[in-house]
Specification:
single chain; about 450 residues; alpha/beta; Amidase signature (AS) enzymes; 11-stranded mixed β-sheet; binds glutamine; nucleotide-binding; ligase; Glutamyl-tRNA(Gln) amidotransferase subunit A; AS_sf
Length: about 450
């Protein structure tokens, strides 16, 4: 049925970089055969999933929507891909993204933009736009994305689906093509909170292949799906309701707060005083890490290579000039600058210190509150081209999601209504490894 649906809508939505129908049908048959033999099947057996094209899939193209990796076929699976396969999941394809996950609209894909299924003139958000759109358009049951500064939650909000960025380290990053390693985290897009909990059950857990993965006894998250928020303390940070927020978005978030109060939660305005520094800190640290991570694309080992150069240095230069798009180059230049001698202390080190202050805001808040509630994005999905000429404008669309990555804590976006026919997302932020509370609160709201 998902293939029929893909045949109907994919021409318009363009969520996929690669479809893997034959492999999927073979895998589905395997599951069927197991059932026929009366063997046990995994919790996700037979259910279609789409994987963002920055996670390695053995024998299947993994492009990061970049010319640089247009021909890259990994020899191994990312840990999440392996875990899903072991649970019986059926991968039906790889989804489009902003090149190397840098962007907020999927317009930075080197192949084509993905469209928002709610309004094809609008972006699906980004960078995991393909994964969000595929779920919203019913081309798949769920998908995986990655979130470095909002790339799961913001597209989830634009496309009216659930998107979870887990605690840093809860889900292994092994096989996720690195953008900013201290911020990147993999998580699910799903149609509801229950599915998100089931998926997290499968993908979470310690992985010896990822040295930043936490040693933690992963609970059964479906146990948190209880309809009860009585006595839960919800903090509403005033810094998230200032300039630029669309009046409808504010209105729907206020409605959600009222709903939580009527369900017995205690909602209270509070402050996260260093919020205004999150965006500048992110745009120093993320490009710094990216400039280092992306140094490996030199045309030698794998991926795109310019064949016209006569010597190795011009081969490097031509390969990187042509292989990377404008936004990726901008990040590499910003990052290299921030890390260079003479600027390192002024920018990089300073940003690290302010990152700690941002983290401490949350630590203090969680002494008092169980969760923090904000809009996921100040606006609904915008039109193509509206922000693509102005990087600063584009960067501002992650203003509500970025601090969560800097602090390494979990955040979930759930739909909370429509504004002029477009979905609005509500973000719930939890303490480190506080996914259970997030699920409970989100489930009760839903
Ligand atoms: N939009 C942000 C950026 O461009 C976040 C991207 C992400 O989370 N991968 O960096």
């Amino acid at each position: 049925s998902v293939f029929e649906r893909i045949d109907q809508v994919e021409d318009k939505v363009k969520a996929f970089v690669t479809q893997t129908r034959e492999i999927a049908l073979a895998k589905a048959k395997e599951v069927d055969d197991k059932i026929a033999r009366g063997e046990e099947i995994g919790p996700l057996a037979g259910i279609p999933v789409v994987i963002k094209d920055n996670m390695c899939t053995r024998g299947i193209l993994t492009t990061c929507s970049s010319k640089m990796l247009h021909n890259f076929v990994p020899p191994y699976d990312a840990t999440v891909v392996k875990k899903l396969a072991d649970a019986g999941a059926v991968m039906i394809g790889k989804s489009n993204l902003d090149e190397f996950a840098m962007g907020s609209s999927t317009e930075n894909s080197r192949f084509f933009p993905t469209r928002n299924p709610w309004d094809l003139e609008r972006v699906p958000g980004g960078s995991s736009g393909g994964s969000a759109a595929a779920v919203a358009a019913d081309e798949t049951v769920y998908s995986l994305g990655s979130d470095t500064g909002g790339s799961i939650r913001q597209p989830a909000s634009f496309c009216g689906v659930v998107g979870l960025k887990p605690t840093y380290g809860l889900v292994s990053r092994y096989g996720l093509v690195a953008f900013a390693s201290s911020l990147d985290q993999i998580g699910p897009f799903s149609k509801d909170v229950t599915d998100a909990a089931i998926i997290l059950n499968t993908i979470a857990g310690h992985d010896p292949c990822d040295s930043t993965s936490v040693n933690y006894n992963v609970p059964d998250y479906t146990k948190s799906l209880v309809n009860d928020v009585r006595g839960i303390k919800i903090g509403i940070p005033k810094e998230y309701f200032v300039e630029g927020i669309q009046p409808d978005v504010r209105g729907l978030i206020e409605d959600a707060i009222k709903k939580f109060e009527s369900l017995g939660a205690v909602c209270e305005e509070m402050s996260l005083p260093h919020t205004e520094y999150a965006l500048p800190v992110y745009y120093i640290l993320a490009p710094a890490e990216a400039s280092s991570n992306l140094a490996r694309y030199d045309g030698v080992g794998y991926g795109y290579r310019d064949e016209s150069a006569d010597d190795i240095v011009s081969m490097y230069m031509k390969t990187r000039s042509e292989g990377f798009g404008a936004e990726v180059k901008r990040r590499i230049m910003l990052g290299t600058y921030a890390l260079s001698s003479g600027y390192y202390d002024a920018y990089y080190l300073k940003a690290l210190k302010v990152r700690t202050l941002i983290k401490q805001d949350f630590d203090r808040a969680f002494e008092k509150y169980d969760v923090i509630l904000t809009p996921t994005s100040p606006s609904t999905a915008f039109k193509f081209g509206e922000k693509s000429d102005n990087p600063m404008e584009m960067y501002l669309s992650d203003i509500c999601t970025i601090a969560v990555n800097l602090a390494g804590i979990p955040g979930i976006s759930i739909p909370c209504g429509l504004s002029q026919g477009l979905p609005v997302g509500l973000q719930l932020i939890g303490k480190p490894l506080g996914e259970e509370t997030l699920f409970r609160v989100a489930y009760t709201y839903e």
